[in-house]
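Researcher: Please predict.
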Amino acid sequence: MADEVKYFVLLKGGKDTEHIYSGKQPRQAALKAASDGATDIKLRERGTKKIHIFKGSIEWVSAPANAPSWLKVQNGKVKKPNVKKIGIERTK
């Protein structure tokens, strides 16, 4: 089933952290990690032997005029996360 939510654990120094991100695709979880400030993103997919590797960054862009109330606007700007997939490692 391609519509199932998957869980990804953020790795730091080759070890699991307490940060767990969910998404249907690894990129979706990586965007969440990037918006939390991570730049070198390694996500271990739970239940598999895959580690997805991304480079992340945050760009501050102008907030839209019709921004919802839950959107965190600072000085008229909002965070826009960007990620680029580097590759996949397979663990043993």
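Model: DSSP finds one helix and five strands in the chain.
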